[in-house]
Amino acid sequence: MMRSQLAIASLTGIALAVLAGQCLQVGVGATRQASDARVVLVTLDGARTEELFGGLDIDVLRASLGPKDRVEDQPVYRRFWADTPAARRARLMPFFWNVLMREHGSIAGNRALGSRVALANRRRFSYPGYGEMMLGRALDDEITSNDLKPSPRQTVLEYARDALGLRADGVALFASWDVFNGIGEHTPGSVTINAGYEALVAPAESVSARLSTAQFETPSPWNSVRHDYYTFRLAMDHLERHRPTVLHLALGETDDWAHDGRYDRVLETYARTDAYLAELWRWLQAQPDYRGRTHLLISTDHGRGHTVHDWKDHGERVTGADVTWMAFASPSMSRRGEWRDHAGLQNAQVAATLLQWLGLDPRRFAAEAAAPVG
């Protein structure tokens, strides 16, 4: 009798242990499925903190005009001018400031509030800036130009695809500048990239097929940068048709119009970008597979000069070119509005932040990578 009881107890214990193990496995699987995150990275090339946090810079606008032109007569002045920095930035980017940052996210980089974001690299131009975000650290001795070359190391996009076992179209990069064909990947073909004036193979009846043709019929003033309109529309069509887990949308006109000294076009680009962000956000919130599980990070690759003499420029010798900003709208971050009086952030933290949002360990990507933003 005693042995039978012991045998039964033993078998019962084994059965319970097996059952517990099965439940644990089911629980892990369920958690993994329930936290099936998506991430979207949006970059605005060379977007100064002056415009982002203060809107129209009246001194720069005045300096960009001819000697007989009046500021008050300019369409961008009538459209974007207001008496305070907060009012001006809200007129320039109403969705970003009145909805996204107020109700859903937060932004770091307003130095007037003790919030600092800066580059880790010393080059202070585009490829090193984007490389810092893609690799999680500065590689000043390996990324020394804006030449179209493959990334010197595996990028965060490639790592995410491998770690999550995604198809190539599950990690996508759409960019206005053609050099992103190198910036985005170390091994060509690892992820989906469409950058610059590049044809996109798509079904004949699709939006992408029509846009792919139209981009060549409406050239921008720059040989290597197409209009952001095409980049945004192609990215939205890819979202709709392929439902990627990771998307990087890289817009470029904020930088190119600035280099050309067209401050009016710079301001108009910020306003268009704000409309793009509104459309992107509302689309994400309307999709059951993206709503409540999508993490959005918005930033820039470098700053620019602070004055009327150097606002068009950036680079190692330009004061202010290392000054950047970073905005977040994530279900895992409760902070809202502007960051204040915190330890400084770096653009190098973008890679680890994206990976952490995806449930991946950034240290497995690169031991030298900067820590995620908490």
Question: Would you mind describing this structure in some detail?
Answer:
The strands form 2 sheets. This protein has an 8-stranded mixed β-sheet, sandwiched between helices. It has a two-stranded parallel ribbon with strand order 3-10. The chain has helices spanning 2-34, 49-54, 58-63, 75-80, 85-92, 94-104, 126-135, 156-164, 180-183, 207-217, 228-242, 253-259, 263-286, 350-357, 362-365, and strands spanning 38-44, 106-108, 117-118, 171-175, 192-195, 246-251, 294-299, 326-329, 337-338, 345-346. Strand 4, helix 9 (180-183) and strand 5 (192-195) form a beta-alpha-beta unit. The longest helix is centred in the first third of the chain and has 33 residues, at 2-34. The chain contains 15 helices and 10 strands. The protein is α/β, with parallel strands linked by helices and 374 residues long. Mean pLDDT is 92; it is low at 1-34. The chain folds into 2 domains: 1-34; 37-365, 3-Layer(aba) Sandwich (Alkaline Phosphatase, subunit A). The chain is 43% helix and 11% strand. It starts with a helix and ends in a 9-residue tail after the last helix.
